[in-house]
Amino acid sequence: MIKDKVVLITGASSGIGAATAKLLASKGAKLVLGARREDKLRKLADEITAAGGTVAYETIDVTDAESNQRIVQFAKDKFGGLDVIFLNAGLMPNSPLSELKTNEWNSMIDVNIKGVLNGISAVLPTFKAQKSGHVIATSSVAGLKAYPGGAVYGATKWAVRDLMEVLRMESAQENSHIRTATIYPAAIKTELLSTTTDQATLKGAKALYDEYQISPDRVASVIAFAIDQPDDTNVSEFTVGPTDQP
Ligand code: NDP
Q1: Residue 209 alpha carbon, nearest atom of ligand 1
Q2: Strand bridging mode 237-240 / 178-185
Q3: What pLDDT, on a 0 to 100 scale, did the predictor assign at position 151?
Q4: What is the pLDDT of residue 98?
Q5: What is the pLDDT of residue 78?
Q6: Which of 8, 9, 10, 14 to mutate to test the pocket of ligand 1 (most atoms within 8 A of CB)?
Q7: Distances (CA, A) of 66 to 60, 69, 73, 144
Q8: Res 106: pLDDT
Q9: ipTM above 0.90 for this complex
Q10: CA of 16 to the centre of ligand 1 (A)
């Protein structure tokens, strides 16, 4: 059941995170939104409140472990507990390896991998102690299939896949009743391409997205489906994307 669950979303200021926040709030969840851009978080929180939802927000940088600890504590203080964390913040500054955009490689590793690890470490003690909880993370179809220009992004998303599968296995072994779900979106209409600086890569990506992208609301629906299952049922993985995208 979604109603009354406390759900913390990272990368909530736009795209998939924002769409998921709106949908879950409309189904009665209590939302805690985290991202760096406060103006975007405030606007979204106002929209959710105006629609009758329950929401709070805090600016965070997922690359900072303390920031993740702080927002988990904020959620618990505000709503008396935490049921779901959606580790969704991500960047995709794709480029060929030969361009040696090493700063961008490092930011992807910091946000897409360390950000997820920081979120897991912030929430795991709480979920283990309460013997319940749901960790959801956004990987990508790039975490399932390699493509030129996507070496580092793909590597970070493969890492998310591995981390989440091992979290699922260890949680089951420890009988901690923690559910996990990893989502693998294909082309979704969000702000993600704004982080791509390599112009040739951007041109190719835009051409693909112009042809195939679907709304982030579709991803939000499958996340809601996973949360809505009974506590003994774990929807651990799903891909979601445009029907005709090859
Ligand atoms: P957006 O660019 O719209 O959203 C990315 C979100 O991540 C923003 O809310 C941004 O907020 C947040 N973010 C980035 N860096 C940080 C940081 N250091 N600390 C906190 N928050 C951060 O794109 P999407 O909605 O598409 O991206 C969401 C996830 O979906 C990502 O993990 C992405 O890799 C994945 N994905 C997207 C696909 C697509 O086609 N759109 C396909 C496959 C996967 P802010 O800038 O305010 O901090």
Answers
A1: 40
A2: parallel
A3: 98
A4: 98
A5: 98
A6: 14
A7: 9, 5, 11, 31
A8: 98
A9: yes
A10: 7
The reported pLDDT for the residue numbered 9 is 99
- Only one residue has tokens 């409140």, namely 49
Q: Position 176: which residue type?
A: S
Q: Specify the pLDDT at position 154.
A: 98
What phi, psi does 81 have (nearest 5°)?
165, 180
Instruction: Single out the residue of 243, 239, 213 nearest to residue 226, CA to CA.
Output: 239
Question: Considering just the CA atoms, what is the radius of gyration of the chain in Å?
Answer: 17
Q: Which helix (H) or strand (E) holds 42?
A: helix 38-50
User: The domain 6-238: what is its CATH number?
Assistant: 3.40.50.720
* Lookup result for tokens 């982080």: 195
Q: Which atom of ligand 1 is nearest to the CA of 157?
A: 34
* Residue 29: DSSP 8-state: P
Q: Along the chain (246 residues), what's the average pLDDT of each consecutive run of 10 residues? A: 97 98 98 98 98 98 98 98 98 98 98 98 97 98 97 98 98 97 98 97 96 97 98 97 95
CB contact set of 150 (below 8 Å; sequence gap of 6+): 94, 142
Of ligand 1's atoms, which has the minimum distance to the CA of residue 36?
Answer: 48
Residue 111 token pair: 């946000």
Name the residues annotated as catalytic: 153
Q: Please state the pTM of the whole predicted model.
A: 0.98
Q: Distance between CA atoms of 144 and 233, rounded to whole angstroms?
A: 24
Task: Dihedral sign for Cα 169, 63, 69, 48, please.
Answer: negative
- Retrieve residue 33's tokens: 């939104």
Question: Taking the domains of the chain in order of start, what are their residue ranges?
Answer: 6-238
